[in-house]
Design a protein that fits this description.
single chain; about 160 residues; alpha+beta; Aminopeptidase; 5 helices; about 35% strand; globular; binds coenzyme A
C-alpha cells in the first residue's frame, strides 16, 4: 500500500538519488546525467521555497514531487518515480497531490517543462501543450512545456 507524506529535510540526499535513478530510465549517457545533477538535487532550502511530497511503499521512498510558485503560477519542478515502481500509479497520485497543493496555494495554472519521455504521461493526465522551452541543462536542447489550467480541474 503506497502512502503519501511530507519528507523531512534530512531525507534530501535520498530524494536527490531517487531523482537521478529515475531520470536515468530514459537511457541518458553519463555526461548528460552529470549535467543534470544540479537540477535534480533536492536541497534543505527547498523545504522553505516549495512544497514537496513523497510516496512510500513498505517504508521505502519510491516517488517524489516538488511544486514551486511564481505569482499565481505553479510549476511542477520535479516528479520522479523509482525505476522499480514505474507503471503502478505512483506518478498519477503524486501528480494529483501536486494539483491539489497548487490549488490550495491559490495557483491558477501549473506548468511542466517535461522530459520528452514523460510528456505523454502529462497529456494523459490532462495537461496540454504550451510550446517548447530551452533546457537549462544542455544548450540547444528544447523540452516540451505543458500546462494545466487549474480552473478546469474537476473536484475530487
Ligand atoms: C513519468 C513518470 C513520473 C510516470 O510515473 P508512473 O508511476 O510510471 O505513472 P502511472 O503508473 O501513474 O501512470 C498513469 C497513466 O499514465 C500512463 N503513462 C505513464 N508513463 C507514461 C509515459 N511515459 N508515456 C505515456 N503514458 C504514460 C500510464 O499508462 C497510465 O495510464 P492509464 O491511466 O491509462 O493506465 C515516471 O515514468 C518517471 O518517473 N519517469 C522517469 C523520470 C521522469 O522523466 N520524470 C518526469 C520529469 S518531467
Amino acid at each position: 500500500m503506497t502512502a503519501l507524506r511530507t519528507p523531512e529535510p534530512d531525507e534530501a540526499e535520498i530524494l536527490t538519488q531517487l531523482c537521478l535513478r529515475s531520470k536515468a530510465v530514459w537511457g541518458y549517457d553519463a555526461a548528460f546525467m552529470t549535467a543534470c545533477r544540479p537540477a535534480l538535487t533536492v536541497a534543505v532550502a527547498d523545504w522553505q521555497q516549495s512544497d514537496i511530497q513523497v510516496a512510500v511503499d513498505d517504508g521505502k521512498i519510491v516517488g517524489v514531487a516538488q511544486v514551486v510558485y511564481q505569482g499565481d503560477a505553479a510549476e511542477l519542478d520535479k516528479l520522479f518515480v523509482d525505476p522499480d515502481a514505474l507503471g503502478g500509479g505512483i506518478g498519477r497520485r503524486l501528480f494529483g497531490w501536486s494539483v491539489e497543493t497548487a490549488l490550495n496555494r491559490g495557483a491558477k495554472v501549473m506548468t511542466i517543462d517535461a522530459d520528452p519521455g514523460a510528456a505523454d504521461f502529462y497529456r494523459r493526465l490532462g495537461a496540454v501543450d504550451d510550446g517548447m522551452v530551452a533546457s537549462t541543462v544542455v544548450p540547444g536542447r528544447f523540452l516540451p512545456r505543458l500546462k494545466l489550467d487549474l480552473a478546469n480541474v474537476p473536484p475530487h
